[in-house]
Amino acid sequence: MKLISLTILTILFTSCSVTSDLNTRIDRSQKKSLKGSPFQTAKGMKAELKIQKKYRGDYENDLKNLLENYPNDTIILTEGYDFICLGCPSDYVQIFINDTLLLYRKDLMDKKYKKTKKILINHFDTTGYFYSDIAELRQEIRKGNQWNNNPEKYGTDECLDGGHTLYTIFYPLGKIESMYMRCWLNKEFRK
C-alpha cells in the first residue's frame, strides 16, 4: 500500500508540473534579456513571463520536435505581447525555421493557441515589412554578430503603440539567447 501511495504521488507531482526543462531554459534566457535591456519597459514584463510559462505548453511540443528533427538548424521563436494588457500571455507566437513559419494566435474563447503554417518566400512579404524582423535577425546570426547585445540597434521603447516582443534563438549546439524589444523599427526609421 505504501508503494502504491508513493507511485500515485509521484505521478501526480510529475503530471502537475507546468515547467519542462526547455520551458525553464527559455524563461531563464528571457529573464536575462530583460535584466540587461536598455529599455525601461523591460522592467514591467515579469508578470507576462510568469504566465507565459503556463501557456507555452500549447506550442512547446512543436518546438521540441523541431529541435530534435533539425539539430543543425537555428530556430527563431518570437512571443509577442499586447502593450495594454498587463500580466497577459503572449497574443501571438512565431516559430521560424528555414523557410517555414509556424504561427500561433491566441483564441480568446477557448484560451488556447490556434496554429497555422506558412511558407515564407525570401523570409518576408513583397513589401519588405512583414517578418522583416525575422529576416534581419537571421542575417545577423549568419554573420556571427552578437544580435542581442544592442537592442537599440533595431528599435526603441519610445513608441505610443505596438507591443512587447521577446526573440529567442535556439542554436544547433543547444545554446539559447533572447532579446527583449518594445517596438521594432523598420530600417528607414532608425537612428
TrEMBL record:
First and last residue of the signal peptide: 1-20
Superkingdom of the organism of origin: Bacteria
Keywords: Signal
Protein name: Lipoprotein
Species of the source: Flammeovirga aprica JL-4
Organism lineage string: Bacteria, Pseudomonadati, Bacteroidota, Cytophagia, Cytophagales
